[in-house]
Structure formats: C-alpha cells, structure tokens
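Incident log, support desk, overnight shift.

02:14 A customer reports that sequence design results differ from what the structure should imply. Their input is reproduced verbatim below. On-call engineer (initials T.W.) acknowledged and began investigating.
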C-alpha cells in the first residue's frame, strides 16, 4: 500500500488480504459474544468480506499467471490498454474500464487454467454456497441456519487460508501473529465440527432395530431404532427443495416399512435454534420423515419442550454418550 499521503494505492493482494482479515475479525467478534448478545449483522460482515477477499485473491492468482485472465471479455481490452498507456495511467483508471470476471468465473478460470492443488469439487461447492448466502445479503432478505453459516465460514477460512498460502507468494507474510492464531482456532473449530458430525454419522450406522430408553431421544418409555442402509451427508433430501440436512439416513423399521431420518448436528443450541429447525420439521412432516437433532451440549427444559412441540427427536451431550455406549455393548434389540 502506498505511503504517499497524496495518493491511495492498494495492491490487489493487499486489498484481498484486508477483506479476508475483516471477515475473520467479524466472525471472531460474533463467536466471542455471549449467545444472547450475538449480532447477526456480524455474520453478514463476515460473509460479505470473506466473499470479497476470496474473489480478489483468486483474481490475484489469475493476474500472476496472465494479466488478461481477469478480464470478463478480451474484445477491446488491447485498445483500452494502449489508451491507458498513452495517458500514463492504469487500465482501471479509464473512464470506461474493462469489466473483470465475477466471483464464480474466477473460481472456474483458476480451476481450468491454473489447476492448483486443493481446489477440488468439494471446496468449490462450499465456495458456491458462500456465494448463495452473500447474494441473499446483497439482494434480498435472508433466511439461513446460523449454525450452518458459522460452520461454513470456519471451514472456508481454514481451507482458503491454507490454499492461498500454498498458491500466492507473499500471502503468508500478510498474517500477523494474532491473526494467525485466530485462523488456527477456526481451523480447530472446523475440525471439531466435522468430527462431531462424523461421530453421529458413524453412530447411526449401528442402528439395527435395537430397543433403547426413550429419554435418549427426549421421548417417554422405550423406542425401537430403525435399521438404516443408506446414508448421505450435507445433502438435500429433495433436489427441488433448497433445504439441506447434515445427515440423511434411510432404511426400514422393525415392521419392514420405509423410514427416513433428517439428522442435524449442532455444537450448541440457543433459544432460536428450533425456530430455524421448524422449517425442517414442516418439510419432514410432509415427507413422512423423522427429524433428529443432536446437540453436543447439555439440554435445557425449554429446549426439550420446544423439541416436543415440533415433533423433533432431541439428544444432548450426555444422552449421546449414553446412546453411543449402549450401541457399542448391545448385541440384541432390547434394553435388557
């Protein structure tokens, strides 16, 4: 960045890193606030700045490979470049400068022309999801699961910071010690989130018609678990509906009837969580599926009652540990 007081000059790399930094700081402020004081606008800032930073840094990669790769169309660019050269200014200071590629096109061009390691289909899908959320903030009202947004941001900061460190020379030097520690914390948080979901994913594969205490699912008496034989993670149960669940499990009950469970895994739960999940519950009712919420924290009486009101099965940390232990030792579909 130029130190000349009469000029404002920020490089593409500096601009991208600054936005990335602002996104990370907004995310950290959101996470550090108490549950009741978390401002959703901080998540908006995190989404907007992270999206902008990623777009600029992908353009930095394209420009380092070939400056013309960042332009939307090459037609007329040569003429504009000559005009800028004649005036002794940069091409983007022209009255009518050429347009650069969009966020999505930058991803496509980096993938196609640079072929860097790490930018696989899974990461591209997460980048696309970030763009969907950003577009909601940009153009119309927003309705999204906060925990899913938080999880996506933590995952992308982890993935993209590592990606840019490997593919942009000088990127690593842009992090100060404090920011590096923040990114490391988000990396650990993203890993914990994926580990929790994996734990639940592995557990439901042990469902083989066992009878378990209903209290483990926030219901009375005892209940028979289904036998699942189909499992998917981070999927839309119906491709025509935008709703996505952490885990989709399908199989049969002990009577041989087809059953589906929509499973959501959350690290923590506040009073607004089940308000968000009411949409999942409504869709599940139409689809004749069950909804199971696994919260890796202790359950409050109010949360238990809200789950009952919505017809959602609910399992907290203690219940999950007990259910895990029960299924590890159970060899017969009965409590005894």
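02:41 Re-run completed on a clean worker. Output:
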């Amino acid at each position: 960045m130029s130190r000349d007081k009469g000029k404002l000059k920020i490089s593409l790399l500096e601009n991208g890193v600054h936005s990335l930094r602002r996104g990370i700081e907004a995310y950290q402020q959101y996470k550090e606030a108490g549950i009741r004081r978390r401002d959703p606008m901080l998540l908006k800032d995190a989404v907007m700045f992270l999206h902008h930073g990623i777009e600029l840094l992908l353009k930095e990669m394209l420009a380092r490979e070939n400056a013309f790769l960042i332009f939307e169309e090459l037609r007329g660019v040569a003429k504009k470049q000559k005009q800028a050269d004649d005036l002794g200014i940069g091409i983007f200071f022209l009255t009518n400068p050429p347009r650069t590629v969009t966020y999505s096109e930058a991803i496509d061009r980096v993938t196609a022309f640079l072929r860097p390691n790490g930018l696989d289909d899974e990461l591209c899908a997460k980048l696309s999801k970030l763009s969907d959320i950003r577009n909601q903030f940009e153009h119309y009202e927003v309705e999204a699961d906060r925990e899913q947004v938080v999880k996506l941001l933590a995952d992308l900061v982890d993935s993209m910071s590592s990606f840019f460190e490997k593919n942009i020379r000088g990127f690593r030097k842009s992090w100060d010690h404090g920011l590096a520690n923040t990114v490391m914390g988000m990396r650990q948080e993203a890993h914990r989130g994926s580990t929790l979901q994996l734990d639940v994913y592995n557990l439901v594969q042990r469902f083989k018609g066992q009878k378990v205490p209903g209290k483990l699912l926030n219901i009375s008496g005892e209940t028979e678990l289904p036998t699942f034989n189909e499992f998917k993670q981070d999927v839309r149960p119906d491709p025509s509906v935008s709703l996505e669940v952490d885990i989709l499990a399908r199989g049969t009950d002990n009577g041989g009837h087809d059953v589906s469970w929509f499973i959501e895994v959350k690290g923590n739960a506040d009073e607004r969580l089940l308000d968000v999940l009411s949409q999942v519950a409504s869709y599940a009712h139409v689809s004749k599926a069950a909804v199971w919420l696994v919260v890796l924290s202790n359950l409050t009486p109010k949360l238990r009652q809200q789950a009952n009101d919505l017809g959602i099965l609910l399992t907290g940390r203690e219940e999950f540990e007990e259910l895990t232990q029960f299924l590890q030792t159970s060899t017969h579909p009965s409590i005894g």
